[in-house]
Amino acid sequence: MSASNKITAGNSRLRSLRRWGLLFVGPVVAAFIIGFVWPFIQGIYLSFCSFRLTSDATFIGIGNYLSALADESFRYSFGYTALTAIVSLILINVIAFAVAYALTQGIKGSNLYRTVFFMPNLIGGIVLGYIWSMIFDGILSAYSTSILLNTTFGFWGLIILMCWQQIGYMMIIYVAGLQSVPEDMLEAARIDGATRWQTLTKVTIPNVMPSITICMFLSLTNGFKLFDQNLALTGGLPYIIQPNGSTVNTTEMLALNIYNTFYNANTAMRGVAQAKAVIFFLLVAGLGLFQLAYTRKREVQQ
Q: What is the pLDDT of residues 245-274, one digit of tens each?
C-alpha cells in the first residue's frame, strides 16, 4: 500500500471514530452527569438552603456551615474519625505488607493463604458489623460489660473490624508490587553482602512505593468514609450528655454523624447535615490529594 493510500485509510478511520464515537461515549457521559454531576451540584446548593424536601429549599447563605462548625458532636466526630483513620492506616498497611512479604518468600500453600486473607473483603460492612458485635459482646459479657457501654472497647472494636476486612485487599496489592521488584536488583544486593533487612529497606520497599501509595490512599479514604461498619457495630454508642443538655456519641464517626443529623426528628437540621456533607467531602478529597502528592514525591526520589 502506498503512502497516500495509508493516509487516506487513516483519515477514513478517524472520520468513522468521530462519527460513531459519540454513540458509544454519549450514554456513559449522560449517566455520569445525571447520576453524579447533577446531584453533586444540587447537594452543594442545598447546603446553603433550609429545606425539608428538595422542592421547598429556601436559600439562607452560610448559616448551615456556621451551625455545622458550631456543633460539638460534629467536632468530636472529626477528631474521633481522624484518630481512627490514622491508627487503622498504620496497622492495615504494616500488617498487609508483612503478610504479603511472607507470602512471596516461596512458602507452601501461599495461594491458599492469599485466598483466605482476601475473603473478609467480600463480606458487606453491615454484616461484618453485626457479626463482630456478637463476637465482642460474647467475650465482654464475661466481664459484665458490652462494646456499647465502653468508648475504648468501641474504638478498638472498629479498628479490629477494619483491619480484618481490609488487610487482605491491601495484601493483594502489595503482593503484586513485591512480585514486580526486579530480580537482578535483589541478586545484586545479595552479591554485595546486604542483609535481608538491608535488602528489604534499600531495595524492596523503594521499588514497592507505587503499591504503598495506592494502599495508603485507599486505607486513608476508607478510614474517613467508614459508615456501615460503624452503624452496625456501635451505632455511635455510648453517649455523654454535655452541660448544655446536648448529647455526643463517643464512637460516632463523621459519616454516621451526618446520617444521624439528616434523619434527626428535627427536619430543620437537614440543611446543616448537607453542609456537613460538603465539609466532609472537602476534607476527604484534600487529605487524599495531599497523601498522593507526598507519597508520589517519594516514588520520584527513590
A: 788 999 999 999 999 999 987 888 999 999
Cα 289 from Cα 296, distance rounded (Å): 10
Q: Give the chain's end-to-end CA distance (angstroms, integer).
A: 48
* The residue count for the chain: 302
| Alpha-carbon separation of residue 207 from 16, 88, 242, 288 (angstroms) | 43, 24, 51, 22
Query: Measuring CA to CA, which residue among 177, 166, 193, 195 is closest to residue 295?
Result: 177
Taking phi over 0 as left and psi of -120 to 50 as alpha, with beta for the rest, 149 belongs to: alpha
Contact 224, 254 (CB under 8 A): yes
Query: What are the tens digits of pLDDT across the range 60-115?
Result: 999 999 999 999 999 999 999 999 999 999 999 999 999 999 999 888 888 899 99
Give the Cα separation of 301 and 295 in Å (integer): 10
Distance CA 301, CA 291 (A): 16
Residue type for position 172? I
Question: CB atoms < 10 A from the CB of 131, how many?
Answer: 15
Max CA distance (Å), the chain: 87
CATH 1.10.3720.10 location in the chain: 65-301
Which tens digit of pLDDT belongs to each residue from 163-183? 999 999 999 999 999 999 988
Question: Which is more confidently placed, 54 or 270?
Answer: 270
* Whole-number pLDDT of residue 124: 86
Whole-model pTM?
0.88
Neighbouring residues of 237: CB distance < 8 A, sequence distance ≥ 6: 148, 149, 154, 249, 250, 251
Round to whole Å and give the CA distance between 231 and 237: 10
Cell of 161: 473490624
Domain 65-301: state its class. mainly alpha
Residue 10's pLDDT is what?
A: 52
What are the cell numbers at 184?
A: 537482578
